[in-house]
User: What shape does this take?
Amino acid sequence: MTAHTVVVGGGPGGMFLAYLLARAGRPVTLLERHHDFDRDFRGDSLHPWTLELFDRLGIGERLLDRPHVKAYSFRFHTPRGTVTTSEYRLLDTPRNYVALMPQVRFLDFLAAEASAFDGFTLRTGARVTGLLTGPDGTVTGVRYRDDAGEHELAADLVVAADGRFSQVRRLAGIEPVSLGAQTDLLWFSLPHRDGDPEDADVDLYLGDHHYIGLISGPGRWQIGYSLPKGGLSAARAAGVEPIRRFVAEQVPWLADRVGLLEDFKQTTLLSVDISRVERWHAPGLLLIGDAAHVISPTGGNGILMALQDALVAADRLVPALEHGTPGEHVLAGIQADREPAIRQVQAAQVRVEHQVARARERGRPITPPGFLRLLTRIPAVRARSARSNAYGPNPPVPGPDLCRALELTTTG
Ligand SMILES: Cc1cc2nc3c(=O)[nH]c(=O)nc-3n(C[C@H](O)[C@H](O)[C@H](O)COP(=O)(O)OP(=O)(O)OC[C@H]3O[C@@H](n4cnc5c(N)ncnc54)[C@H](O)[C@@H]3O)c2cc1C
Assistant: This one.
């Protein structure tokens, strides 16, 4: 009998996995603790890998009908000039850009697409509070709470896609290991105005002691202002003026509106973390996305990694779920397929975190290494860097079983 999967968490990873399972005819219930998918500053970047895959799934055009901004490059701005490290335009694909779309639009889109399949059930306002287990400890379902009270829901497989503070992970007694992030980011937004540069895509402005990430989106600029880890109280004590000053100095064309940042209430703190669990699975339970590994916003590829986890999980789960609860070897296979890419991304991020911390300790401006400035003058280098960011390491493709179940051609 075809097995029933419960996915906990309607972020990019959980929602995409639920979509793929439902489309492949595998019954799936998605539990999301919030009543909707609205959330601010959660990453809006849809990379070329995602856009190409969605084209292949036949839903790319519909996705891109929703308002978004196209980012064609990734740049550093330093007192010594601007360095473009990744130039997506140089990629040999019609989707040669990162689509910046508020996450709520992306998640609403996936939920609507998944709802077209009979096997898909979405319960919002449903917070998972416990795990059901069999006599041998196998996870057999979840306990959740919604406005109507407490419920139990049986499952042949539970997938924890409930993010960096995963409750399911905690309930299963699985501990993440931190690899040591040194920075926190304070996010806020400022409106677009006529005359803003059209090519401000994904920009990093490096200054003394701080940097800011500037990302465009429909109608507004999202700004991430770096703080040393744990530095929020000191920043609050100093007030918003130093932040306004830094933004105006680094990005002079925003000076006319930095005054709109009046209070810390307008900001959201992202405590940057780089961590992962050792085992992404237990009997009857699989962890994916941020629940399994948190990456820093450097490279903006948290969503990409979560979506790639979901594809790999669907690839192995779709055939296995036809025969009941997938064995642990199936779940271990998902980790084995994905973990090397995650390790590679995290190792690069840890290096960047250390560079930033060293510069801060020495009171030096944070700058990209000199050789990068020279190297990135070569278009092939900018194209290579764009490719690596656009697709991530070892980008997965749907395998033959999943292609059959989704009615896709195996090449594409
Ligand atoms: C402030 C901030 C800025 C970021 N910027 C970027 C960026 O620019 N680009 C990028 O690619 N990534 C960015 N990220 C990272 C990105 O958001 C995550 O990597 C990505 O969303 C991970 O997806 P996920 O599906 O694994 O988990 P999440 O997106 O975290 O989704 C988890 C879901 O689980 C739900 N949930 C949690 N607990 C329960 C429970 N007990 N029961 C039911 N549901 C539950 C949550 O409400 C949430 O909807 C950012 C993250 C943050 C916090």
About this structure: The first helix runs from residue 12 to 23. The mean pLDDT is 92. The pocket of flavin-adenine dinucleotide is lined by residues 8-14, 31-34, 41-43, 45, 127-128, 161-164, 167, 187, 268, 270, 289-291, 297, 300-303, 306 (CB under 6 Å).
